[in-house]
Amino acid sequence: MTFLSAPFFLFFPVVVLGYHLLPRGYKAPWLLLASWFFYLCAGPEYAPFLLFAILLSYGAGRLLEGGRRRWAVAGTIVLCAGLLFVFKYLNFACSLAAGALAALGLSVSAPVFHLLLPAGISFYLFEAMGYVIDVYRGKVPAQRSLLRHALFLSFFPQLLSGPIARAPQLIPQLEKLPPVTWDGLREGLFRFLWGAFKKMVLADRLAILVQTVFAAPGDFGRLQVALAAVAFSLQIYCDFSAYSDMAIGAARAMGFTLTENFRAPYLARTIQEFWRRWHISLSTWFRDYLYFPLGGSRRGKVRTWVNVLIVFAISGLWHGAGLTYLAWGLLNGAYQVAGSITAPVRKRLRGAVGLKEDSFLTVWLQRGITFVLATGAWVFFQASSLDLAGQMYAGLFAGPAWVFTSMGLDRWDLLVAAAGLLLLFWVDLLEEKKPLPERWRALPLPARWAAALALLLAAAVFGCYGPGYDAQSFIYFQY
Amino acid sequence: MAKHRMLRRVCAAVLFLALAAALLALAGQVLRPPQVSYGSTWRAYRAEPEDTIDVLYFGSSYAYCDFDPVEIYRHSGLTGYVMGGSEQTMAITYWYLREALETQSPQAVVIEPTGVFFEKYQQYTQTNLVYMPVSLNKLGAVFTAAEPELRLGLLCDLWFYHNRWKELTWEAVQEALAPAEPDTRKGFTGVVGTAAELTLTRNPRPVSEAQYEENLQWLLRALALCEERGIKAVLLVNPTYSQCSPEQYRQLEGDVAQAAPEARFYNWADGFEALGLIPAEHLYDGGHLNRAGAAVYAGSVAALLTEDVGLAPMEQTAEHAAAWQAAVADRDRAQTGE
């Protein structure tokens, strides 16, 4: 049951109504029941893993109540990371080991384990580890109610693909159980609708072009390969931010506030800023639980750069067990290191050509460069192998400019995609000052209704769905 | 005060949802391709003046290619309409009948019963059901006669047709939004041409006993509905070269006679000569009559309805009578190619 499936449109109103109408004592059990039902719909075989994460982190939290037992934290991290390693990285590690041995002249065929990858495991295991570390650090008291702790890890809007919840932010809300309010309901549903529009009209439409060109970059011209790379940058933004909008919107409709996950990332002026705006819940998780413990920026420049590279390498691998993800992570880390090294030179250069720090031209030039850099890195992310990524890069610089062959989208699709992206760009600019749902709520009633109905109609008519269409699942579902 | 505010909000939410549903339904109507032939012509059917039809015809393409209500009217004065559908299963026939009776009160219902030997789901469920007017009958059909994977689209046209926005023209939008007009073909689809080669087959349709039983129950429900409404029910197997086996026809006749003795059963599958039909001239293919064949066949159907079944044309207003005469004139023009 995904957010954009018919069962969810039956499930969600029932959950909201039940949450609203039930007496206070029944609200949390109701939400937990709903969340577990939601998770069971993803596959009942995944349930034991979620239960294990709940019990493990709950137990560790309770142990830490009695004192700063470092081993409890370490044990939780080892078990969670071990679980993640076995189910997500074991085959990758074996193939790497076999490759390394082969390079040494030892021919070993890597075993292939047919293991299931429980839905959302990367997200809820990170939440569990974060919780235990926060209890250890005294940022949050250990949760005594198993029910509430289970709800913290299982809360359905964020369960499958985040945002990765942080205990100090979500647990107080689960204790307070905020009421369903008229404003929250409207704002939440509007945000959900905006997410649906981004996913159905933009992400899934761009995906067709991306998949066509990435499948055989050699069949296309330089401009088409560049277009596909740009399209993937936009697709993954529309796709993942759409999911986050729907998750945050669904929670907001019930009165809960989840961590924001995106803040117009392509308006960032540096890669460093980009990562403060992209997948914020993951970036801050790595910052708080990995980068800072490694020493952060307190141990000199070189150590800072090494820490950045470590964090981004792990972040890359978090996204997928593959060398392309590692390359993507390391490239982003390298951008930051290079950015830090070249910052004084670039500043001097801007001064020399008379570009003021915050002038319109400087800002947009920096945004453009950041977008190009991010897009260059996304090529690794989307490519199924380093070889294919190499072909994409080669395709950017070699061959004809354009090859007259179908890229999967006709001119009408391209027109809709362009119009939708313009709208997204405009909304991102607006959101720099005030969130979209708040702006929407401030509109007079006819404009509010017109905006909501227009979005609904646009998603229903121009969206990519229905029979004969190979529905794209959310990209981040696989992590 | 709080109660009043709550009520206002609930009303606003309901109004918004109604508006959204109406907007989506309207978009679905505009984007759905028009259906003017090959059965399921619900839009034109609903445009017929209420309670002006003497006979309703149901069944698969064997019905909408073979029963020509305009020619039957020419012979008998009986007004009629074919609410057939491609490979219409008996379950769909039942729901079609229920829905058709919402606006018409015919004297007789004629069902071409080959659908009793169909599988539970045939190939054209989508076309058969998507054009049904929004109603409880449609809901019934969707949940009892359609493949589960089609249900969402059958409940929301946009699921199937939203992608047609690229081929939409202004004329098509205007046509979709304009009020429906009665169609002079009255649900009939006249196919032109003759089969190059004809082979008479009497092969048993490969339907399981359980499926036959289920189909028969739907047919019996339709017959019971006719009985309940005082409508004469006629099961008429049309002349065809792609016949079911004689045993299957006999089994059906026997089962119907036992369970619904008031229904009349006629097997004219082999009756070409007696009906004045020449297979080489009047069959479009092994299964269906062509337009000329349907015109010839109409005489026999008209005679059956007036003489055997005992129907007499209902009194029509001058306006309705003129409309039917115009339909006959239209047909003449079409046949003479003017």
Write the layout of secondary structure elements.
The complex is a heterodimer of chains A (479) and B (338).
Chain A: H1 6-21, H2 24-42, H3 47-65, H4 70-103, H5 121-137, H6 146-154, H7 156-159, H8 167-176, H9 182-215, H10 222-253, H11 271-277, H12 280-291, H13 301-319, H14 323-352, H15 360-382, H16 386-397, H17 411-431, H18 436-442, H19 445-462
Helix pairs in contact in A: 1-2, 2-6, 3-4, 3-5, 3-6, 4-5, 6-8, 9-10, 9-17, 9-18, 9-19, 10-15, 10-16, 12-13, 13-14, 14-15
Chain B: H1 2-31, H2 42-46, E1 55-58, H3 61-64, H4 69-76, E2 80-82, H5 90-100, E3 108-111, H6 125-130, H7 136-145, H8 151-155, H9 157-161, H10 170-177, E4 201-202, H11 209-229, E5 232-237, E6 242-243, H12 246-259, E7 264-267, H13 272-275, H14 279-282, H15 291-308, H16 318-336
Parallel strand pairs in B: 1-2, 1-3, 3-5, 4-6, 5-7
Helix pairs in contact in B: 1-10, 4-15, 4-16, 5-7, 5-11
What can you tell me about this protein's structure?
The complex is a heterodimer of chains A (479) and B (338). Chain A is 72% helix and 0% strand. Chain A is an all-alpha fold. Chain A folds into two domains: 35-177, no CATH class; 183-478, no CATH class. The radius of gyration of chain A is 23 Å and the shape is globular. The two termini of chain A are 17 Å apart. The model of chain A has no long low-confidence stretch (mean pLDDT 93). In chain B, helix 4 (69-76) packs across helix 15 and helix 4 (69-76) crosses helix 16. Chain B has helices spanning 2-31, 42-46, 61-64, 69-76, 90-100, 125-130, 136-145, 151-155, 157-161, 170-177, 209-229, 246-259, 272-275, 279-282, 291-308, 318-336, and strands at residues 55-58, 80-82, 108-111, 201-202, 232-237, 242-243, 264-267. Chain B has a single domain, classed as 3-Layer(aba) Sandwich (Rossmann fold), CATH 3.40.50.1110. The longest helix of chain B is centred in the N-terminal third of the chain and has 30 residues, at 2-31. The termini of chain B are far apart. Chain B is built from 16 helices and seven strands. Classes of the chains: A mainly alpha (479), B alpha/beta (338).
